[in-house]
Amino acid sequence: GSQPLRVACIGAGYVGGPTMAVIAAKTPPEAVQVRVLDLSAERIAAWNSERLPIYEPGLSELVFAARGRNLHFSTAIDDGIKWADIIFVAVNTPTKECGIGAGAAADLTYVELAARQIAAAADTPKIVVEKSTVPIRTAEALSAILEACGRTSFEILSNPEFLAEGTAVRDLCEPDRVLIGGDLKTERGRQALEALVELYAYWVPRERILTTNVWSSELSKLVANAFLAQRVSSINSISALCELSGAQIDEVARAVGLDRRIGPRFLQCSVGFGGSCFQKDILNLVYLCESFGLNVVADYWRSVIAINDWQKQRFTARILHSLYNTATNKKIAILGFAFKKDTADTRESAAIDVCGSLLQECAKLSIYDPQVPAEQIWSDLTRRCRRTRDELAAYVTLAATADEAAAGSHAIVILTEWDEFRTLDYSKMYKSMCRPAFLFDGRSVCDLKALSEIGFLCYAIGSPDDSRIQLR
Ligand code: NAD
Ligand code: UDX
Hints:
Belongs to the UDP-glucose/GDP-mannose dehydrogenase family. By secondary structure, the protein is an alpha/beta fold.
């Protein structure tokens, strides 16, 4: 028979790992072979172990079944490049920390390094797929580098990833759409595009595979994230109005979302969106608009982030006011540290900001999260507070259970919507707490009426104020 299609991916992170696992799982090994490559020996070792480096429901089953069959993890990047027909680039593209565009523009260092590595190693024609989220026209830069440094020919495609963490496997197996941008003007461009379409067509219905020009594809990714984040900021802005006016945010969200033009999803108010993508991609869009002189457009999108920052501050301020304006040396139980449920990821988690602000008030935090590793919490908080772990240790403890976190505390603060927080034994926790016992629900997981009956003084985002809580 003919050779299998050889697919490599540079970057074995949240996107590269699950995406390649699903490609391998959905294709026969005689037709498609997949290699996932990374600089980090530690990450690759974890992908090859029993304990994968990331937690996603359903992921380990897929990886264990395909690993060694048509899915391979390796640090031999040059070998992998030489071997492959199609090379996905799924490296990180964080916000630039210094220089021009610091705090807004995307840092393309890793993308460029990957391109240079491909150019140096490749000796047969390759299709290079931009999987990382990048500013519009990055493909042009990639192409220039590959052409200038390479010995062979390259076709560049843009294929942004829309998976969300916590549902990565489902999102990859049943995507709303797969977007592929390519050079539709040349025969080779069209062939490259068709090769990638055929790969996805193993499991994605053809009508859900969209092909566009490269620039539309690159931009669509930024715009999709900006729209999603905007919905969260929109509902969060209204949550503040609800608290003061007596309306209930979930009732408003439901009434509004039943309009089919608006739709019900992504209208869950919260302590603020987090995750590695929303803020970074909006900042990227803002920077792009500014660089084209579209300042009004830039300001519009920047306000989505401003609302998000305000939501986090507002929540922390409410905690402080409720605790009679002092949190000093008060034990506070923090339930949830991940940026959303079903992931151990804490990147840009609202919990980091809320905990950081409470630590500035000299509160004593006892933090419980069912998935986030202790090391991650320490590293996030030491970075946020600019204090050493030893300095923080007087104020921060990590609890093994929610009960342990709550014992002896003045308040419970819910920052991630883990399912298990819905069914905790709150009356038992109440008994172990100081009086008055407060509960601040940043994720709408609790039944406020039931908690009030237990005796808690409750505050939930978007719910009218509990009149028993002293305000201001
Ligand atoms: P990540 O940090 O989890 O993984 C990136 C990996 O790339 C790291 O393991 C790093 O070691 C590796 N790497 C960097 N440079 C390399 C090089 N030159 N050679 C080999 N390996 C290299 O990042 P991620 O969350 O997977 O995101 C990757 C891209 O996908 C970003 O552009 C992001 O915006 C985008 N994206 C992320 C998500 C998400 O939910 N996390 C969703 C859609 C799109
Ligand atoms: C997001 C996009 O959804 C995904 O398509 C893209 O590929 C990557 O960025 P992710 O960051 O993994 O995915 O999670 P998402 O479910 O979008 O949630 C982002 C943040 O918004 C979380 O902190 C979440 O708690 C918050 N959120 C989401 C809300 O506060 N309310 C909502 O209604 C939805």
